[in-house]
Design a protein that fits this description.
The chain has twelve helices and 37 strands. The chain folds into three domains: 172 residues, Neutral Protease Domain 2 (Neutral Protease, domain 2, Orthogonal Bundle); 171 residues, tricorn interacting facor f3 domain (Immunoglobulin-like, Sandwich); 177 residues, Immunoglobulin-like (Sandwich). Helix 1 runs antiparallel to helix 2 and helix 2 crosses helix 6.
């Protein structure tokens, strides 16, 4: 079932962007639409009781579809984070707690609107483990994106859950925060025999009961965030593939589909899943839950939801399947520690749609997907770090958390290159936050360790800053004595709020009668003049960011020299030799008193050499910088004067 607003978008958007909108956008818009219908019930208990650490959930659920009724027995193991004599669990009071036991002892408790306060039989010290059993029952009321829903398809009943972000307490007692993962979980579902009940992990047993019901016992052996625990139950048709991950081993891929929808077209769509599993395993590391399963359970949710080992799906369009599968790495294996960092889930999954597009359609398909994401990313309001987590629409806004999140990864890929970029993702997935929760800073730390770059500027401006750079640029040429040309590129950046000016390496392609040359320059000032020497042939065109690696607006302007440009009023300067192998001489004449600082940057924007800032009088100066320890390549020598700078490209051989 597709959200009506989403269907309208499909009609009006160009076909080139369609695949991407069907994936991440379908996920985003459907979640927002469902939340809007159920928002009146939402009361958030974020971030749960910080005095306890959850170790295990077991949900034994007896569900009556006819009565829209749930009887539950929740076994929860927890560890005390300090000396405690009680705790609270998050649970909506539409479900009434009957009793709570600790071993053989019944505990006292009181139930509020959205939580249960529990008093223990005595005090327990730090690191002691307790196992509680909570008996409860009632009519679940759906909130957020559906949380616990009694629905139908064709003429058949269905029950499904979708707890992200705040819906889990609608159907089981829990600690309602993504930061505290249980080490493992069990879900047992008892319903009439016509229901096939699906949950996380592996099916260990089915029991036919004397009252005409059947119990499905599912066991998950991996750490799991509470909101990723799920059930889906209806008269499913079961369809299987296998992901062969070694010469002798394979993992089952099980799809649970509405019988009326199980067509040849749907089978063809589902048959792409093993290919996607191999693709993402090659790019990111082995599928995180390889000892259990992957699969899909069709449900009444219009988009998709990345429930661990079994995504709930409204349709099986390829980019949506890729999006939800990628979440098994980014969202399930590593979960955002708080909803402010949701881009670590949704941005990575949306970027993975482009990775899939590139695998099946080449670089052009990747670029088409990312260019479409950039259109939406420019519309994002606020920082990628979500400041208002009281609003699901803020958390799951497509423009910000999905599109801009994916573009940030695209830009990082452009800065560090493919090899280091994918190695960063692989290292992140086996770091200390693997099978745990993470913040942006955790990912940044891995990125810096893997690439050897200081990326603080990048994460500060793109995660915690707002908007994107707006450049205007123009260029002039001058002919050198040897017949080559020097291109002088003048770049002006419009002042932003946070940051005032973005810092980004930008590729400049110069097209001449003898071919093309591309140089990367680092732009971080209001105005920069950059000289690019040794250009052979007649210059026909200068292209700013030719591969669209940077989220931006860029306008080319015609430069007409007047002889009164600010640079000529302030400084004349040269660097030599260029190219060079051991050192570079900066020879400059100041035409007025000023403070100046000379720096050398590599093409990724990393400052590799710097002379102390000096207060200088109007006069001529020479400064030498040793560069014999730098790798061969292009560098930028820059003289900075506050928010204004001049730069020249230096070639090191």
């Amino acid at each position: 079932m597709r959200n009506p607003f989403l269907y309208f978008i499909f009609l009006v958007l160009p076909l080139s962007g369609l695949a991407q909108e069907k994936g991440g956008m379908s996920c985003s818009l459907s979640k927002q639409s469902t939340f809007a219908r159920n928002a009146r019930y939402a009361e958030m208990a974020y971030p749960g009781d910080d005095k306890i650490d959850i170790g295990y959930y077991k949900l034994n659920l007896d569900i009556s579809y006819a009565q829209r009724y749930l009887k539950g027995e929740a076994t929860i193991s927890l560890k005390a984070n300090s000396t405690i004599s009680g705790c609270f669990l998050d649970l909506k009071n539409t479900l009434k707690v009957d009793s709570i036991k600790l071993g053989t002892k019944k505990l006292t408790y009181n139930q509020e609107t959205a939580k249960v306060n529990i008093t223990f039989d005595k005090s327990y010290t730090q690191n002691q483990v307790l196992t509680l059993i909570i008996y409860y029952q009632g009519n679940p009321v759906a909130s957020s994106f559906g949380s616990f829903t009694f629905g139908s398809h064709a003429t058949s009943p269905i029950v499904w859950t979708l707890s992200e972000p705040y819906g889990a307490p609608d159907w089981f007692p829990c600690k309602d925060t993504p930061a505290d993962k249980a080490d493992s979980s069990d879900v047992w579902v008892t319903m009439p025999k016509e229901f096939v009940s699906v949950s996380n992990g592996t099916l260990t047993k089915t029991l036919d009961n004397t009252n005409g019901t059947r119990t499905y016992q599912w066991k998950n052996h991996y750490p799991i965030a509470h909101y990723l625990i799920s059930i889906a139950a209806t008269n499913y048709t079961e369809y299987k593939n296998y992901y062969k991950y070694s010469a002798t081993d394979s993992m089952v891929v099980t799809h649970y589909i509405y019988p009326e929808n199980f067509s040849a077209n749907v089978r063809n769509q589902l048959d792409q899943t093993p290919f996607m599993l191999k693709l993402f395993s090659d790019k990111y590391g082995q599928y995180p839950f390889i000892k259990e399963k992957y699969g899909h359970a069709q449900c009444g949710f219009g988009g998709g939801m990345e429930h661990q080992t079994c995504s709930s799906m409204g349709n099986f369009e390829s980019s949506l399947v890729a999006h939800e599968l990628a979440h098994q790495w980014f969202g399930d294996k590593i979960t955002c520690k708080s909803w402010e960092h949701i881009w670590l889930n949704e941005g990575f999954a949306t970027f993975s749609e482009a990775v899939y597009a590139e695998a099946v359609g080449g670089k052009n398909a990747y670029n088409t997907t990312m260019n479409s994401n950039m259109v939406f990313a420019r519309r994002a309001a606020g920082s990628l770090f979500v400041k208002n987590i009281n609003s699901e629409n803020e958390i799951f806004g497509f423009n910000r958390s999905y599109a801009k999140g994916s573009v940030v990864l695209h830009m990082l890929r452009g800065i560090v290159g493919d090899e280091k970029f994918f190695k960063t993702l692989q290292n992140y997935l086996v770091s200390s936050v693997a099978y745990n929760s993470a913040t942006t800073e955790d990912f940044q730390k891995v990125a810096e360790q893997t690439t050897g770059l200081n990326l603080d500027y990048f994460f500060k401006e793109w995660i915690y800053g707002e908007s994107y750079p707006r450049y205007s640029y123009g260029w002039t040429t001058a002919t050198a004595a040897d017949g080559s040309s020097t291109v002088t590129l003048k770049v002006t950046q419009t002042k932003n709020t946070n940051p005032e000016y973005f810092s980004m390496p930008v590729d400049i392609k110069i097209i001449t009668s003898q071919g093309e040359t591309t140089t990367s320059v680092f732009i971080d000032k209001a105005t920069q003049d950059i000289e690019i020497p040794n250009i052979k042939g007649t210059i026909n065109q200068v292209v700013f960011d030719p591969e669209n690696k940077v989220l931006k607006e860029a306008t080319e302007v015609k430069i007409s020299l007047t002889g009164k440009e600010p640079v000529s009023q302030l400084i004349d300067w040269q660097i030599s030799p260029n190219p060079t192998t051991s050192e570079v001489l900066i020879d400059f004449t100041l035409k007025q008193n000023t403070s100046a600082q000379i720096s050398v940057f590599d093409v990724a924007g990393r400052k590799v050499k710097e002379l102390p800032e000096e207060k200088l009088s109007a006069a001529s100066y020479k400064r030498t910088i040793k560069i014999d320890d730098l790798p061969v390549g292009n560098y930028i020598v820059r003289i900075g004067f506050g928010k204004y700078s001049l730069a020249k490209v230096l070639v090191v051989r």
